[in-house]
Every structure is written in C-alpha cells, then in structure tokens.
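@channel sequence for tomorrow's demo:
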Amino acid sequence: MKLHGLRIPVVVLSLLLGLSLFFGCQWLYQKYNYKQPLVASLSENKAVLSYEVDDKHDQLLIEVRMSTPNLMEDYKKLYTKLDAIMGKKPFILKLTDDRDSELIKAYYNSQYAIYQAISRGTYQEMAAVINKESIALGVESKVFIDRDNIYLQMKHNNHELNEIVPRNPSSSAAMAGGELFNAEGN
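structure tokens (generated this afternoon):
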C-alpha cells in the first residue's frame, strides 16, 4: 500500500523502531546514570535501615529510615552523596521513623521552642525546653544544629523519631523529612 509514494508499513515500522530505540536508550541512561549508583549508595550506608525510591513524579522521592548516633552528620553525608549521584535531577530526601505516642507528644510539646528559636535565635533555650519535655515523658533526646537545619533525634523504648526542621523554610537546601503533628499524632 502506498500513499504519495511512501510505503505505509515501512513508515510505521520505522516509527516504531525509532520510538523503541529512544525509550530503550532513556531506560538505560536512567538505570546506569543514577538508579544503580543511588541504590548502591543507599544499600552501602550503615546508617540507612531501609529505603524506598519513588520516581513517578517530576521530583524523585527518596524515603529513608535511619538509625544513627548523630543524625546531623549522617544525614548530611547521605544528602551530599545523593546530590552528587543525582546531578541536576531534582530529588527530595525524606526521613521516616517509627514514632510512638510518647515521642509524638515530646515533639509536639517541643515545636513551639523550635520555631521560636528559628525566629529569635534562642537555640540554647530551645535545647533546654526539648530536654525538659523529653525527660518528663521518659524520652531520650538529642538536638543538632547547622546553618540549614535543626536535627532532632528522640528515642523511647524501641521507637525513634528523627525530625529535620529547616532553619530557613524557603531554602531549597533545607529540604528534609517530616511534618508537624498535633497532640493526637495526626
């Protein structure tokens, strides 16, 4: 069958082969350019207990559960390594944990001091309030600060809460993990 001197089956077959080649190359590029190094980096990191990668959206969502004595140090190392792997591909590194009701209460009771410290610079007062609230509920807590974030680690029994609060919420470097909870943990 011909249309204006072109054979339709040959044109359709050429189009299908071209599209297959294009999508195949794209798949190989993604697999070897960032997916394999990303999975290898997450798997090799001793602080990472588990991870999940969601690439169904414009930004890659990397959810990580960490267990570490120093959340700030290990989070920054992980973020820096992932940033080098991802290059210009946008991603979000989100922390997950296994909070219990006591951890949620301790964090909820500490939020006011955290956000007050961000706006007023009262970081020592914030640390004292977090320590007081934690002790009252039988929770062990650690607070770390750098120029971008406040890193809050809390442990109670076999549960832990890892929260990163951006010091400058509009900063793209402060993309981190978590949400605010109300007293009921919702």
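heads up for whoever presents: Confidence is low (pLDDT under 50) at residues 172-186.
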